Amino acid sequence: MAHPLSSTIAWFKLIAITKMTMDLLAPFNLNKVAVSRSLSETGCAKYDVSKVTMEEAFENACIISNHLHDHEDNKGVINYDLLVKMRYGVTIFNENNIIQI
């Protein structure tokens, strides 16, 4: 059953656990998107995922899984302007510390 908001799941940064999750979700009819600087067209095809901007992910996803590293260059990348674009009821998994928010 699709989430009532949409069936879009967004990953921020592709790491082993996100790739494993994508494999597990392969049988389901989901729109999978990723925010990743290193994602190539080949990687997109392999995991059946579309590369999007962070803004697009926040506007469209019903689930957001954040795996960005807690580095100084990621400080504040998830900010008020992005958070207000989210729809009501969105679930965010924040694997790292709070430096990004």
Give me some keywords for this one.
single chain, alpha/beta, 28% helix, disordered N terminus
Set down the secondary structure blueprint:
Blueprint: E1 8-12, H1 16-25, E2 31-35, H2 41-47, E3 50-51, H3 54-60, E4 63-66, H4 80-83, E5 91-94
Summarize this structure briefly.
It contains 4 helices and 5 strands, in the order βαβαβαβαβ. The protein is of the alpha/beta class.
**Shape-level CATH architecture:** 3-Layer(aba) Sandwich
Count of DSSP-assigned helices = 4
As residue ranges, the low-confidence spans are: 1-5
Write out the strand line-up for the largest beta sheet, numbering strands in chain order.
3-2-1-4-5
Number of strands: 5
The level 1 CATH classification is Alpha Beta
Q: Fill in the CATH topology.
A: Rossmann fold
The largest sheet, given as strand count, sense and whether it forms a barrel, is:
5 strands, parallel
How would you spell out the order of helices and strands? Answer: EHEHEHEHE
Shape: globular
- Radius of gyration of CA atoms, rounded to a whole number: 13 Å
Report on this model:
This protein is α/β, with parallel strands linked by helices. It has one domain: Rossmann fold, CATH 3.40.50.720. It contains four helices and five strands, in the order βαβαβαβαβ. Strands 3-2-1-4-5 form a five-stranded parallel β-sheet, covered by helices on one side.
